[in-house]
Amino acid sequence: MAGNPVDPLQTLSAALAVPADSKEQADILATLRESLEAHPNPITHPLAGDSLLKRWVLDLLHFAISRSNLSNEVRTQLSVAGVNKKSDITSCDRCTNRTLRQQWDVLSQCKARILEFIWSPTASTGVKVSAVKFMQRVIIVQTRGISDPRLQNKNDPNISNVPVDHPFLPGPTLEAEGMKLLESVITMLYTSQNPELLSAILHSWSNLVKQRPALVQLVVSSLSSWTPAALSGLPAQSVKSVEKAVRILLIHISRGPHGSSFGAQINEALSLQVARMERASTEEKARKKRPSSTPAEHPSDAKPFTEPALLELVQTYRQSRGLAPGPPVSSTPQPAPPTPEATPTPGPSAEPTVKDEPVDPLQMDMDEEEMEYEPDRLNMELSGDETVAEEETIPADLPEALTIDLTDSTLLGPKELTDIERNALMRGSVGRIWDGAEELKVDSAVTSQWPGTSPTDMWMLLIVRMVTRVAHLDGDPSSASEDGGDGETKVDFYSRQDNLRQTLCDYIMADFPSRLRLVTTWMNEEWYNDRIRMTDDPHWRPNYELWLNQVVSTYQTVLEGKPEGKPDGRDKAFARFLLDLPSVPPDVLGLLRDLSVDPDKMHVGFTSLREFVLERPSLRAEALQVLLELTTHPDPVTRRAAINTVRRWVPGIEPMDSMIRDFALQILRRLQKRPPKEAPRVIDEQAGAGDENMEDGQLPSEDLLQTPYLQEEIELPARKAHVLQHVELLFALSVKIPEFLDEIFTAYGQMELTVQEAIQDLITALIKSLGSSNGKLLTLMRTCPPGSESLALRVLTIFTEHGRPSAQLVALVKGLISDRDLDARFLIPIIAEMDKPDILKYLPRIVSILNGQQEPKNLVRSVFSSVVTTPPQTFGSVSSNLPRVRQSELLTPAELMVLLHEAEKEIGLKSAIEAIGVCFSMTDVFRSEILAVVMQQIVDEPVLPVLFLRTVIQAVTTYRTLVGFVSTTLLSRLITKKIWQNPHLWEGFIRCAKVIAPASFGALLQLPKEQLRELVDKQPSLKSGLREYVTKRAGNKARVAGFLDIFGEDDDASPVAPATPDVVMSSVPA
CA 208, 211, 215, 220 torsion: positive or negative? Predict the structure, then answer.
């Protein structure tokens, strides 16, 4: 079995599948044990309770740690992992079990032994990392968890689970030890020079801040003040890795539920870290660009090779070239001085003596090839031998007749080639040169960072110049138009050159990103070649712009040919190519504009324009203008991409910052009202009169900024999409520059009504992002310019749509209402947060907005719902803006109805009537018993409201159960108050009596005869009923006779049933 390993997981699964604690399970586990002993392979499986399988796993773990052939590092990591998991379980068990003291002692010893690895100088990095992770787990277990019982996790072991009276678990001691370990971790963060160890600490802190919110402040403070000072001397990449880990952890904390209170501290730390990392990156780039240290200086007479080594190299070179080896030359450290008797080199005949003549060194033509191919001659001269061997030049046995005199010889002309052959020759040459450059690039061991110095750069330059500079047009180009033959020659010349350039262009565009350096070299060479050629030949046809357009258009074709037409988002080759151009024609910016509006190619366009702005100061204004104009594009995707591109330069990055601000404000002014266009004036003195009619902040139409994507004048009524084109950039910038809010509020007051309505809707996202605690917004609401009150009201409404207004906001609005004559709608969002005196004070002002339209009526109904208590049996059935908890501060339904009657003059009769009608529509709040209380309370007032009888009529019409109360109590009280002395109330009394007749007859008989006669005169239909009521009622005959005298005999008149009048009394004076 040992020679054939089994799959541990499958075998373990098989053991779990058979009956537990059976002989079959024991056999399978024994087989797995044998296989693991022969082929160690850790496996993981959760176990619970005491069983045969659990004991087998523990025994196997003991074998792996103590007796197996695993490496020490693997054993240590395995033990740490086991104890790390066991510590949590054991700690929880010990909290509830008070008898397992021995296991706690063993666990404490294991913990102490593992923690020793952290500070051990001999432990490996892997072991230390595992030990640090264990220590972080110990810190979590030995610190207190979340105190809120609603958020506690039952599976989270912590020191809070330890009872105070536990016999062997010292809670305070363990908690102090946990904090001490945390301090040790923080010390390691500041002092350790091991990037792997620091990364392990930072990664484990994400769980620490999640499970221990009380330690978030300590972690944030430690990370905020951390600097890589201890990592000095380490590679820049290692330092950068730790910096990134710190940054990721800070961002993770800021986005968590406990990071909101540390937002400012974290943002400041991240800003400092960004500056620190950029500075380190700049220093690293400067270090890489710095030339290598100066090599040790050698003496001027030092030779790179000794003479024997040089002779050996020469002989080897001759043999590799198939040349005859040179004669052996003796080599001595100090050669003897030359003497006349020295024997010359043996040869078949004596050589003639060469006469020494003086030679002007300035006129010498020293050929490098001669120096290279004649090492023997050079070594002989250096050794002091005046005789030079000539065997390699003219063989000694060559007959004299075979010597050739080349004085009068001429070379044959080159073979004439056809155009096809010429192109094939050039293609072959270019291909061989490029292939050779690729081989050189592979074989070269040292590459230079400076362009033009590597072999590849040299071969690229050679290819480009073969295309751009080799060919010359013979003759005078200016005479080509006079001679037809010369014209054809010129056309043929340019055609051949274009074919060569097209070949190079096709080769480049086949793999543009990898051949970026070649195309950049080509374009720079074309630009320079045009300059030098046009200096000599004014009629030279420029090639730079022609072939630049060709490259650009071909690149567009390549993009369209890609799958789905989309370029690689990480490919910045085209942007880098445009950035390295010596001159950028205007039509290239137009091309980038077209690419930016294409959804599939916008990445290329925006990347190129951004690089132009950053790295080409000469084109910065033009490129930035294109980006700014794209911020007004009608397509939301293109517009937002442009806004995201330019907003990164605001604030603080000049000159882009100022240009972007000016553009955004000028686009905003386009939404303001413009002076009416008038006919042109004849007299110049009157021309300026039109400007005097313009309001502050308005610009003449001819001074307004225009972009290709905006209409000359916005159409009215304005559409939100058109308005958004004007303000989306400004809204995006306002998040970073709150001062722009002043400009928005100032311009708002000078806009058309439909434009204002669109602004109110579009500004919602901006206001929500700023929040109700934004100081600039609160200041603007307090000091909003004239005409912008409706925008301030919209801001207030946004703040209170999905939340209760803060006390600061309530106080601000109350101050505004007191200081300025603002619309009562400002009170609606905050009225529910006021106390009862303020509600009674400001509620009539809110009710006064009723004008017969449905929208104000809905607003007033929502206010009533929020400030009036609802009877318990129907509580919650009325929608309200966050029901208040302070029920004592709310109004009762009766108090509201009484308030509407008492404040009828302040509100206005028509608005008060409409408000009372809103109350009657809330039948679940204003029930019959509530109305009875209201009528009883009002009738006791010394001065009755004008609308009181109208309300009584409406009450008895809505609830017929109130007729008895009105007829027996209310009418009698009104008679005692001599209601007829008030004409308006008397008219209402008569109408009410008619509505509730015959129930009102008893009360009517209490009227004086004169008022009773007036009543029946105004309402003749009541005579018959009253006469019948008096006749049937037995009583004083004289009194009855008196009533009958008032009612008279009206036999001919048929009784008219009382008709219920309209709810709204037309007779009530306005």
Answer: positive
Structure tokens at 712: 């000359």
Whether 629 and 638 have beta carbons less than 8 Å apart is answered as no
* Residue 980 in tokens: 């007829």
What backbone phi and psi angles, to 5 degrees, belong to 868? -115, 135
Query: What's the CA gap between 436 and 444, in Å, rounded?
Result: 12
Q: What is the pLDDT of residues 240-277, one digit of tens each?
A: 888 888 989 888 888 887 777 888 888 888 888 888 88
672 - beta bridge partners?
751
Rounded to whole angstroms, the Cα distance separating 162 from 168 reads 10
Spatial contact of 830 and 800, defined as CB atoms under 8 Å apart? yes
| Omega prior to 344 cis, within 30 of 0 | no
What is the pLDDT, as a whole number, of residue 989? 92
The strand pairing partners of 868, in sequence order, are 891
* 536-557 burial code (b ≥16 CB/10 A, e <16): eeeebeebbeebbebbbebbbe
**Mind giving me the DSSP string for 257-320?**
TT-GGGHHHHHHHHHHHHHHHHHHHHHHHHHHHSPPPPPPP--TT--SS-HHHHHHHHHHHHHH
Residues, the chain? 1070
Question: What's the pLDDT at 1066?
Answer: 42
Helix (H, G, I), strand (E, B) or coil at 672: strand
- Could you give the 3-state DSSP secondary structure of residue 494? helix
User: Cα(853)–Cα(873) distance, rounded to whole angstroms?
Assistant: 32
* Rounded CA separation 524/547 (Å): 11
User: Could you tell me if 735 and 769 are in contact, meaning their C-beta atoms sit under 8 angstroms apart?
Assistant: yes
Q: In this structure, which amino acid lies at residue 1054?
A: S
From CA 382, how far away is CA 556, in angstroms rounded?
A: 64
Question: Cβ atoms within 10 A of the Cβ of 942, count?
Answer: 5
Q: Give start and end residues of each alpha helix (H) in 903-947.
A: 904-907, 909-921, 928-939
Q: Which two tokens stand for residue 74?
A: 């693997």
Q: DSSP letter for 968, please.
A: I
Listed in order, strand segments (DSSP E) in 642-750 are none
* Those residues with Cβ within 8 angstroms of residue 559's Cβ, 6 or more apart along the chain or in another chain: 565, 567, 600, 601, 604
In angstroms, the Cα distances linking 633 to 662, 729, 788 are: 18, 11, 28
Residue 517 in 3-state DSSP? Answer: helix
What is residue 1002's predicted lDDT score, i.e. its pLDDT? 87
Cα–Cα distance measured from residue 617 to residue 622, given in angstroms and rounded to the nearest whole number: 10
Beta strands in 909-1021 (DSSP E): none
Q: What are the CA-CA distances from residue 854 to residues 713, 918, 1066 (Å)?
A: 34, 11, 21
Q: Which residues does residue 751 pair with via DSSP β-bridges, in sequence order? A: 672
Using 70 as the pLDDT threshold, list the residues of the chain that sit under it: 1-3, 40-51, 53-54, 61-62, 64-99, 290-306, 317-318, 320-413, 419, 426, 430-431, 433-454, 470-490, 493, 560-571, 676-703, 871-888, 1034-1039, 1042, 1048-1070
CB 379 within 8 A of CB 307: yes
Structure tokens given for 1041: 């006779």
